[in-house]
């Protein structure tokens, strides 16, 4: 299917970055088409919903306060509900009518009502880390948690969307924060990764395991353990890690040139009033270092510099690990282009900014597991279906060149999803993603990673979200199922709807429209 590159001169996309009020009760949706009978659960989504407090704006896409969304399916009907997650960051902001806790790109100034001495000492109390859990939601045991990328996760009731409990993971494992993209095995075991203080007062990375539901009904988080620790390439500058790969026997961790300057984080923050974004820097000397581990295997796999936020899938095949990832080429941090002022600009300005940003590309890297020193200079990859290469250099590092699976100028394949239940960590054929057009989400894409064929859903002035795959219960093929995505169409009579697509051919099965605004959402899940 041919991609039509839409233009957005009317700027309807600005609506997805506007504050909304939470609902007092679920509202019925108007259904067009027929809801598949096997959809009987809930689509849960998270993203920012409050973009300013009083007269103080939030500046970055990842700063707005967390709003949880839910579409419930029952007897062919759909209802929509949303509610703000009552984090400390949210409650204190609403109470004091100002930004109280520093967010990703917004600094919280001291209370202006305090005198100069108490304000001075406020600066030196250390960093107050945000618990604004606007990125994702996932299960741990029988509970569900809204999460961001700090050490705080928030337990929520997925029926009422009530906020139940703030949990500090630092009380259980040695981490400074973990990703919002864990891997969850079929028995409910959760694996995640985060940076930590390692040996010799230097930064390292820990892979954490949280066990499944306990027979004695105790909290699985209390039994969290570090599976493996491995060092950061730079002692005080760990890489920013948004996700990681996991096959049946290996984790794949990519250390990119986008670094968190810990010394800047600890000093400049408390004295000058920086935000998280001020503490990132790009190391233009480093390329990319890849590690493969369940037991730590210290082969240095290197590649040209990229930004990497989302792994698509990782699997093993005849002594190789195949890692498919959504990349952005180069050193510069892509988040530099996600300031709300950029995203709310007129269309020509949005395009102009995107022209300067790193360019997106879906890549396949192949990592050899059986490596011998005498094989210097030759391609170690012998899988017949890929052009990716791995060559050992004289210093013992293995240089990886990828195969490109999808590429279009300023057209990103992002927020990827697969049939995770059946093919997570295994050989697979199809990936689904949100298409970003100069950073503006305006289509859903299906990609055959073997043939590179694509299928597209898009409509004018319509802004969808990450597509979630739900398998047909009796489905045989990998793509027997549906995709669920939340779409905002500002010009329509009912501006928000949940869209159901046939995952086979991307045709519309049904939509459930609601008469209330829905802002941008990042990630979520389908709860059966």
UniProtKB/TrEMBL annotation:
A Pfam family recorded for this sequence: RPE65
Keywords: Cell membrane, Hydrolase, Iron, Isomerase, Lipoprotein, Membrane, Metal-binding, Palmitate, Sensory transduction, Vision
Subcellular location: Cell membrane
Source organism superkingdom: Eukaryota
GO MF annotation, one: metal ion binding
Subcellular location, principal: membrane
Keyword Acyltransferase (UniProt): no
Names of the cofactor(s): Fe(2+)
CC terms in the record's Gene Ontology section: plasma membrane
Enzyme Commission number(s) of this protein: 3.1.1.64, 5.3.3.22
Catalytic activity: all-trans-retinyl hexadecanoate + H2O = 11-cis-retinol + hexadecanoate + H(+); an all-trans-retinyl ester + H2O = 11-cis-retinol + a fatty acid + H(+); lutein = (3R,3'S)-zeaxanthin
GO biological process: retinal metabolic process; visual perception; zeaxanthin biosynthetic process
Topology of the protein relative to the lipid bilayer: Lipid-anchor
Cofactor note: Binds 1 Fe(2+) ion per subunit.
UniProt binding sites for Fe cation: 181, 242, 310, 523
Matches recorded under PANTHER family: BETA-CAROTENE DIOXYGENASE, RETINOID ISOMEROHYDROLASE
Family statement: Belongs to the carotenoid oxygenase family.
This protein's name: Retinoid isomerohydrolase
Organism: Hucho hucho
């Amino acid at each position: 299917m041919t991609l039509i590159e839409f233009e957005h001169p009317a700027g309807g996309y600005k609506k997805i970055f506007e504050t909304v009020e939470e609902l007092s009760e679920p509202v019925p949706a108007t259904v067009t088409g027929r809801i598949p009978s096997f959809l009987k659960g809930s689509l849960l989504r998270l993203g920012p919903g409050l973009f300013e407090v009083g007269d103080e704006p939030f500046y970055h896409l990842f700063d707005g306060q967390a709003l949880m969304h839910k579409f419930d399916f029952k007897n062919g009907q759909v209802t929509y509900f949303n509610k703000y997650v009552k984090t400390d960051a949210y409650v204190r902001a609403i109470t004091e009518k100002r930004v109280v806790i520093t967010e990703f790109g917004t600094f919280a100034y001291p209370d202006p009502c305090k005198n100069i001495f108490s304000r001075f000492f406020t600066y030196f109390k250390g960093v107050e880390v945000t618990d604004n859990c606007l990125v994702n939601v996932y299960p741990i045991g029988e509970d569900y948690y809204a999460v961001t990328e700090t050490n705080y996760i928030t337990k929520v009731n997925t029926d009422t969307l009530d906020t139940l409990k703030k949990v500090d993971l630092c009380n259980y494992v040695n981490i400074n924060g973990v990703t919002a993209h864990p891997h969850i095995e079929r028995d409910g075991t959760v694996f995640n990764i985060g940076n930590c203080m390692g040996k010799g007062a230097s930064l390292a990375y820990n892979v954490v395991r949280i066990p499944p539901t306990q027979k004695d009904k105790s909290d699985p988080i209390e039994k969290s353990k570090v599976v493996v620790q491995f060092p950061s390439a730079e002692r005080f500058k760990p890489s920013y890690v948004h996700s990681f790969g996991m096959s049946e026997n290996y984790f794949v961790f990519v250390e990119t040139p986008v670094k968190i300057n810990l010394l800047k984080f600890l000093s400049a923050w408390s004295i000058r009033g920086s935000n998280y974004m001020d503490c990132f820097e790009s190391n233009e000397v480093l390329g990319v270092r890849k590690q493969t581990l369940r037991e730590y295997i210290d082969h240095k796999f290197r590649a040209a510099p990229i930004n990497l936020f989302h792994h698509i899938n990782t699997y093993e095949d005849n002594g190789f690990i195949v890692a498919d990832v959504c990349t952005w080429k180069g050193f510069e941090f892509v988040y530099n282009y996600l300031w709300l002022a950029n995203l709310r600009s007129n269309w020509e300005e949005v395009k102009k900014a995107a022209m300067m940003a790193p360019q997106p590309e879906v890549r396949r890297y192949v990592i050899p597991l059986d490596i011998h020193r005498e094989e210097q200079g030759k391609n170690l990859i012998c899988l017949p279906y890929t052009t990716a290469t791995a060559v050992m250099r004289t210093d013992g590092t293995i240089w990886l060149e990828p195969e490109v699976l999808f590429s279009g100028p300023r057209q990103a394949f992002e927020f990827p999803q697969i049939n995770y239940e059946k093919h997570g960590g295994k050989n697979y054929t199809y990936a689904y993603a949100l298409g970003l057009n100069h950073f503006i989400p305006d289509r859903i894409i299906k990609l055959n990673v073997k043939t590179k064929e694509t299928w597209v859903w898009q409509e004018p002035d319509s802004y969808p979200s990450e597509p979630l795959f739900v398998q047909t219960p009796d489905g045989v093929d990998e793509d027997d199922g549906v995709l669920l995505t939340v779409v905002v169409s500002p010009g329509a009579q009912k501006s928000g709807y949940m869209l159901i697509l046939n995952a086979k051919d991307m045709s519309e099965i049904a939509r459930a429209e609601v008469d209330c605004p829905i802002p941008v959402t990042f990630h979520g899940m389908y709860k059966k």
